[in-house]
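Quick one, T. Sequence first:
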Amino acid sequence: MRIQWFRVLLGGFLIEVVLAIVLLGGFAAAGVKIADGVSTSSALIIGLACLVVAFLIVWWLGRGVRNDLVVHGFLMGLAATLLYLALVAGSGQLSSALVTYGPATFIILNAVRVVGAALGGAACERGRAARQAAMPEA
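Structure tokens:
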């Protein structure tokens, strides 16, 4: 197994950048203040965004990965999660994030990002297998 680390790190970075733009911009435009607490509907929106964004970015970047797409997707999701945790902890906001989200919701939302990325890798791998099966032998 050969991991393409540059692609893994790029994927993790892109997942977090897109999530920050979409979620922070979307909640600001809607007038929702996440710092006041995360409602159930906000948590569902965040979870869905984490799943979809991670899936799409891994699916897009996965086209350049030669093998082990699910592993690469998982690692991209893990890199994105570690980047998020480093940013939150580095700014001294980890305890307030845990209070804002609640510990269980915080863990679940971060896990959803990793699951979405792994699913993106699986979808990319399945699409590649289907394309290869459909190609006539020369």
